[in-house]
Design goal:
The complex is a heterodimer.
Chain A (H helix, E strand, L loop, with lengths): L3 E4 L2 E4 L3 H12 L4 E4 L20 H12 L3 E3 L3 E7 L2 E6 L2 E6 L2 E4 L3 E3 L12 E2 L1 H9 L8 E7 L2 H11 L3 E7 L3 H10 L4 H14 L4 E3 L1 E7 L6 E6 L2 E6 L2 E6 L1 E3 L2 H5 L4 E2 L2 E2 L12 E3 L9 H15 L3 H5 L2 H17 L15 E3 L4 E2 H4 L5 H8 L11 H9 L15 H4 L9 E4 L1
Parallel strand pairs in A: 1-7, 1-24, 2-3, 2-8, 3-4, 8-21, 10-17, 11-12, 11-17, 12-13
Antiparallel strand pairs in A: 5-6, 6-7, 9-18, 14-15, 15-16, 19-20, 22-23
Helix pairs in contact in A: 1-2, 1-8, 3-4, 4-6, 5-10, 8-10
Chain B lengths: L3 E6 L2 E6 L4 H7 L6 E2 L5 E2 L12 E4 L2 E5 L10 E3 L3
Parallel strand pairs in B: 1-7
Antiparallel strand pairs in B: 1-2, 3-4, 5-6, 5-7
The chains are: A alpha/beta, B mainly beta.
The complex binds flavin-adenine dinucleotide and FE2/S2 (inorganic) cluster (FES).
Flavin-adenine dinucleotide (FAD) binds next to helix 1, strand 5, strand 9, helix 3 and helix 4 of chain A.
């Protein structure tokens, strides 16, 4: 075990589309760039690479660009704290890594929103992107019966992917009402590349019912999932399945930005036109600034990369493209807004905080997350409220007010990291 | 990508692709629940992306490792908590 120190001009946290685009642009402008990612490999959520996965041409060419630009990638390391301004700490299997930087680009992406309903803690009830991620990383899904549910276009991408891998996708349950989804579908003509993508997915979704205004109300099973009850209008029915892949659209990963003192608006990191946060040396790009899909993440990354390298002129040339992608993002988020009825899914007995097994009924008497936390330990477990936080925001309107280090649980000896006593091995970015 | 590795899940040898994560290997080996919650419920992975900590196991003696974020390595010793 040793501590490793790295120095660079531009440090990028997150190796998804936004982080990769930012890194390649900054490096092409002559900056020394390092990307740090919690995942062992780069690619982020959409281009997660694994066994036998074919890469999209868009991904392959960006990976090549990043390699050619001489960007250094450190995978399997999660950033958990800052040491001081201009220096971040990450934990990896081999100990603590310290990164000093001139400019920082946060490209921490988004995660799925999970809503509690009876039975959602049963094994084999997973996120939609969650099950997809597991399949991409080696889980075989052939001939398994899967119900895909929740909200957002991710459900279609997941269903298509699972089917390609041989799953029996029984149905897709989308909570958004039919009229809203249709209106969104019609508007896709404004973004032909999205329409094309949808048509490509539909090839794999032939014969799979896409039920709008439909959602799961209960998962059943003894030791693992066996059946799910779905609701659509007044109709309730049960479907036997092996997996329920269920996520209610996405929420930005804003915790690192918040820890560093960057302002957020509605849970997303606030940025100016150059993707600069409220702290001028820190930029943010991709879904941490708001959920908007891969094109927006790429453009924001390019802008942040140019701007952090001091090439404002180049960054400005991308503003029009970003505007177009942002229009798509607002149409998307309006279409898949969560309906009121979902607030009634959890009963008093339903676990809301999976880390500490806190039930909905235990939370009713409190008027803020802070109060509930102190009395019930809700949100105090290892995920630090990343799962129940988004649910409680939807259920009760509670917002996380303060983010304290460490961002992730780390081993004690790493928490007590003291740079003056380290046996330091300096690597230059 | 056809390289394979053998790891030990609760002492039982399991051979998987080297590009597999430990979590996928655990599910492939039919370990449906990976841990017990604080009140004793069986739990399996939820997010698949390192956020929820439901997939945590002991790897080579280190407790609380998120199995969905870690690739399998030859000879790895993985212990579930069920
Ligand atoms: C589970 C999931 C699956 C998805 N699948 C699809 C899909 O199939 N098709 C599609 O079109 N869109 C998909 N999306 C939407 C997708 O997120 C966006 O289109 C796009 O990938 C966003 O890019 P990004 O660079 O902003 O973030 P991401 O791709 O999410 O990349 C962020 C990266 O930052 C890393 N990170 C975050 N915090 C830290 C930290 N503290 N320390 C170190 N690293 C950190 C993460 O590990 C991650 O790799 C998915 C989203 C999710 C959440
Ligand atoms: S499944 Fe959520 S952290 Fe691994």
């Amino acid at each position: 075990m040793y501590e490793t120190a790295h120095a660079c001009d531009v440090l990028v946290i997150g190796g998804g589309p936004a982080g990769l685009a930012a890194a390649s642009h900054a490096a092409r402008c002559g900056r020394r760039v390092i990307i740090v990612d919690d995942n062992p490999r780069w690619g982020g959520q959409i281009w997660r690479r694994g066994s036998g996965e074919d890469e999209s041409p868009q991904a392959t060419s960006l990976f090549d660009e990043v390699r050619r630009a001489g960007v250094k990638f450190i995978g399997g390391a999660h950033v958990f704290n800052q040491l001081q301004d201009g220096s971040l700490l990450a934990e990896a299997a081999d100990g603590v890594h310290r990164f000093s930087y001139e400019k920082l680009i946060l490209a921490t992406g988004a995660r799925e929103r999970f809503l509690p309903f009876p039975g959602w803690t049963l094994p084999n009830v997973m996120g939609a992107g969650g099950l997809q991620a597991l399949v991409k990383s080696g889980l075989s899904i052939r001939r398994r019966r899967v119900v895909v549910a929740g909200s957002g276009p991710l459900l279609l991408a997941v269903a298509a992917h699972l089917r390609k891998r041989g799953a029996e996708v029984l149905l897709i349950a989308e909570q958004a009402p039919r009229a809203r989804v249709l209106r969104f579908g019609l508007r896709l003509i404004e973004w032909p590349e999205k329409l094309l993508h949808l048509m490509r997915l539909q090839r794999y979704l032939f014969n799979v019912p896409y039920l709008t205004g439909c959602w799961p109300v209960m998962a059943h099973g003894r030791r693992k999932l066996e059946r799910v009850t779905l609701k659509r209008g007044a109709r309730l029915w049960e479907v036997a399945c092996d997996y329920l892949a269920c996520g209610f659209h996405l929420v930005p990963n804003a915790e690192l930005a918040q820890l560093l003192g960057c302002e957020t608006v509605d849970g997303a990191v606030w940025v100016d036109e150059l993707q600069r946060t409220s702290r001028p040396e820190i930029y943010c790009a991709g879904e941490a600034t708001g959920v908007g899909g891969v094109e927006l993440a790429l453009i924001e990354g390019q802008i942040a990369g140019c701007a952090a390298a001091g090439r404002e002129d180049e960054a400005r040339r991308l503003f029009a493209a970003r505007q177009r992608a942002r229009r798509f993002a607002s149409a998307l988020n309006a279409a898949f807004d969560l309906r009121e009825e979902l607030r009634e899914l959890a009963t008093e007995e339903t676990i809301v905080c999976r880390c500490e097994d806190v039930r909905l009924g235990q939370l009713r008497e409190f008027d803020s997350w802070r109060a509930a936390k102190l009395q019930t330990r809700c949100g105090m477990g290892p995920c630090q409220g990343r799962v129940c936080g988004a649910a409680l925001e939807f259920l009760f309107g509670w917002r996380v007010t303060s983010i304290r280090p460490p961002l992730f649980p780390v081993q004690l000896r790493n928490l007590a990291y003291d740079p003056s006593s380290e046996a330091e091995r300096v690597e230059r970015g | 990508m056809s390289d394979e590795v053998t790891l030990f899940i609760d002492g039982v040898p399991v051979t998987v692709s080297a590009s597999s994560t430990v979590c996928a290997a655990l599910l492939e080996a039919r370990a449906i629940a990976l841990r017990r919650s604080v009140t004793g419920e069986p739990r399996g992975p939820l997010c698949g992306m390192g956020v929820c900590f439901e997939c945590r196991v002991t790897i080579d003696g280190q407790p609380h490792r998120r199995s969905c974020q870690i690739l399998c390595r030859e000879g790895m010793d993985v212990r579930t908590d069920v």
